[in-house]
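Hi R.,

Here's the chain you asked about this morning:
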Amino acid sequence: MTGLTRYRRKASTKSGSQARSVDAADTAKAQDVPPRRAASSLLSKLGTWIAASVAAAIVVSGGLAFWFLTNGARNAPANAAAGSAAAATFVGSETCAGCHRVEAELWRGSQHKLAMDHATDKSVLGDFNDATFEYSGVHSRFFREDGKFLIETDGPDGKLSVFKVKYTFGIDPLQQYLVEFSDGRLQALSLAWDSRPKEKGGQRWFHLYPNEEIRHDDILHWTKLNQNWNFMCAECHSTGVRKNYDAANDRFATTWAEISVGCETCHGQGSSHVAWVREQQSWWPFGKRDDPTQGLHVRLNERRDITWPIDLWSGNATRRIAPATLRKEVETCGLCHSRSGKFSEDWVPGQWLSDTHAVAPLSRGLYQADGQMLDEVYNYGSFKQSRMFAAGVTCSDCHEPHSAKLRVSDDGACLQCHLSEKYAVATHHHHETGRPPLSCASCHMPVRTYMVVDTRHDHSFRIPRPDLSAKLGTSNACNDCHADKSSEWAAAATALWGGPDRKPFQNYGEAFHAAWTDQADAGALLAAVAADRNAPAFARASALTALGSRVSPSNIDLARNGIRDPDPAVRIGALDMLEGVPAAQLWPLISLLLSDPSRGVLYAGRDQPGRPLPAPRAEQRRRERAARGNRHVTTGRWGASRARLGPGAAQAGGRGAGRTAASRRACA
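And here is the predicted structure, written out as tokens:
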């Protein structure tokens, strides 16, 4: 306090002496000026000061008025960040690139950026120099004319016609081509270009169904519904898609905000964020919002300030902070990397995927009994079964999200969290030699091939289980390589390495196998999975769904507990389980979900045979508008785009079983 007082006194003295010296000089000057001139001078100065003050007041008042008119409502407490983000519009990736240059440069070379494009000399990879291709008696020709890319092939009537390629679709390892029809449909040709290098079998035309004869009257023909871009593919290859289906006239007027997968696909509409940035950069000091969302729908910041210290004894890393129940990044990526059907176009990044999409559970024809991928299920359902997901790993821990490439190549991605001295050694993988050398993914992420040439890794990150192969007929990584050996041989070898009593994370294969083969103990085995809080929520939800035909007084509490689960997928599974329960018994159970925050739970509840769950009034109005304007958005519980188009055929067996991935979509 003494120091502060001393400082103030010094400052006061200094300013006082300056003031006095100025006054003395003014007095001396005033004595030399005649009285009338002095008075006139004082009046002039006074007028100048008054005018300056008035001008300053006008500037400040005008500035404040302008600020209140333009920003006042936006900064009102009742209209905080969530409101402004909800009203946001698309601005385009190039706007984002103005500030986020590094991320934009990574994105420009990514498959996301090249997911769809106008057909040009730069974007088209296929051979259109009068190339030909023969398929089931149809002689197709690829050529150019007047700068256009043209294909002569069988049309909707089975006759040869010439079609103009309007857009390219995908880039690696294959590229498809879209043809526009007069009713607004874009159709994906089943003749695709293998864009892999020639030494890997690429640089050729091929048909997506090489072992079948797809004629013009087949649902899988390129002119039919299952190859319709508007209906099947658009959501995952473009940004801000609106189907705009006119049911009365059977026409599409589909729009997009950006032709490919841009920044706002994952981050949401950017106009509020741009406004916030400009506000922060403004010279005007007033009204700058302290907005933690920065005007974004979601902050994908789950990795921020997170560390993964490695335990030297186990060789494994542990997340310093437990993960949240809602995994924003996984749910955002799940929009396109899941097997699901859309029932609402109002998807918001960072929210539960099941709010707008019906996600296919573990079911026959889609997954193997132990949860390994079988049909084209992508990564969402697989990853949610993994120990990695349970530990808190998110997509961008391994993948750089803008380039969509691994952050560290090969085994380096795994060795970020798994000590190389313990795992990158023969004492762990038991393969001292081998060509090519064994990688982590070889055993823990086996590949399956879809669309003839597209190999994809299973993201459930499991240990090989040849013992289950011997019991259940599931595949395993050991016999993927050692195809000349039996699963019993592989099971004996792994038992020697890890012991006979290994307890893996995914241990529900026998339950689903029993359910899918109608064994007597299926109900008890499924109930054990549904009750196991250590089992992945995705598996528990699937077990509840599978219990729908096996409800009994002994397991009804599983549904009651499932309805209270924090994961909406489990709540939906509980509703699936209760689907056949008489209405009188049903209502006391599902009435708890009247105010459920998940639109997907409400949607599932409305299918119950008892008293339906009434959605909030505003939600009801939104659904009615969607039903009137976009009837192709949904066709029943599973939607049309990515769920039950294939599995139904697969479960029926026969010819359809081999077509499930194709009927899901034929998109690169």
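One quick note: The mean pLDDT is 82.

Cheers,
M.
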